[in-house]
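Form 12-C: Joint structure prediction
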Amino acid sequence: MFTKDPRLVFRVGSSFLIAAVLASGWSLATGRMTAVIIPCSGLITLLWLYLILQRWLDGPSFARGLEDERMWQNSSRAMRNACWFFYAALITMVVVFNSGYAQGWKDHAGWILSAVVYAGLTVHMVSFLWFKYRV
Amino acid sequence: MSNQVANRLRFYRRTRDLTQEELGEALGVTRHTIMAIENRKYEPSIALALKMASFFQMPVEELFYLEEDREGR
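Section 2 - Result
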């Protein structure tokens, strides 16, 4: 469920960030599930920084961001850009992995997928910020 | 002939001595949306246009009009 209370967004974000830091510490100490936990923790940290950046740029206006019709429109346009990126990236990966010379790439498929997710999220963030602040 | 929607939001906001932040607060949108509408980078929904008209206590066509209408006046 979406919430219109930005304080709850920050509380949930902080909880996720703390969980990510703890999970990363455990993963690095034990050397288990590093390829999954470290990229996920990185994504959570990136999202947290994104929220902080928005709060800093918007000031008190941030509290109304979740009920602002233009923000939702911007969000869907940014999502469309990110989906196009994912579509192109996945098609490229399928072609590369089936090219016959891709054993080296396949060995690092987890990290490549993580990089694609990071890049897609970055496309979304940059698009959203562009649509929002291009006034 | 242009059909772009123009508005007098900045004029009426200033006559009421309101900042973009204050108007946004009253209408439940961010100041960026007010800024975008004033700069004609964004056309608001009918609901938001009606809320604005209600806030300024005037008909919606006093706030928003088609560019060609003004040229025809």
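Section 3 - Comments
Strands of chain B lie at 5-7, 64-66. Residues 46-56 of chain B form the longest helix (11 residues).
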